[in-house]
From TrEMBL:
Highest taxon, organism lineage: Bacteria
InterPro entries documented for this protein: 2Fe-2S-bd, 2Fe-2S-bd_dom_sf, 2Fe-2S_ferredoxin-like_sf, 2Fe-2S_ferredoxin-type, 2Fe2S_fd_BS, Beta-grasp_dom_sf, Diverse_Oxidoreductases
CDD domains noted in UniProt: fer2
One Pfam family from the record: Fer2_2
Gene3D superfamilies the record matches: 3.10.20.30, [2Fe-2S]-binding domain
UniProt protein name: (2Fe-2S)-binding protein
Keyword Iron-sulfur tagged: yes
PANTHER family (UniProt xref): BLR6218 PROTEIN (PTHR44379:SF2), OXIDOREDUCTASE WITH IRON-SULFUR SUBUNIT (PTHR44379)
Length: 155
């Protein structure tokens, strides 16, 4: 049996511990904000936080997360008012929107570790998250806006 804390709530899972965490989150818990993209940890659509670190849910197993804290886009901010979520809305970042939860989760990890990132920091941290619509300039602008809004505050 695996025990995980998902978005602040303790959960137990008695099934196959080699199952990707993405399937558990989506199919068992109904947390469908985290998306399946490539299944090979190459696109970033499934980015979640495991103990505060951005990880790919498609390649992270239940066993990998046993005893750890998992945060999905649904758990990032109770009312969708995380500075990144606000910036995403204000700057109309998404087009199709499919990659956006992964983009936001990756950006939140960046801002946690680098509260005032440079363009190079953003490019490096976000390079593994693919946006088919090509909204990279708006993604960068939203990250900068969120960083400025928090002015180094812990996210």
């Amino acid at each position: 049996m695996a025990i995980l804390r998902v978005n602040g709530e303790e959960r137990q899972y008695d099934g196959d511990s080699s199952m990707p965490l993405l399937w558990y989150l989506r199919d068992e818990l109904g947390l469908i904000g985290t998306k399946f993209g490539c299944g090979q940890a190459l696109c970033g659509a499934c980015t979640i936080h495991v103990d505060g670190t951005a990880m790919r849910g498609c390649q992270t197993t239940i066993a990998d997360a046993d005893g750890l804290s998992v945060t999905t886009i649904e758990g990032l901010a109770a009312d969708g008012d995380h500075p990144l979520q606000i910036a995403w809305r204000e700057l109309n970042v998404p087009q199709c929107g499919y990659c956006q939860s992964g983009q936001i989760m990756q950006a939140a990890s960046l801002l946690k570790d680098t509260p005032q990132p440079t363009d190079e920091d953003i490019d490096s941290a976000m390079s593994g998250n693919i946006c088919r619509c090509g909204t990279y300039p708006r993604i960068r602008a939203a990250i900068k806006q969120a960083a400025a809004a928090t002015q180094g505050a812990k996210l």
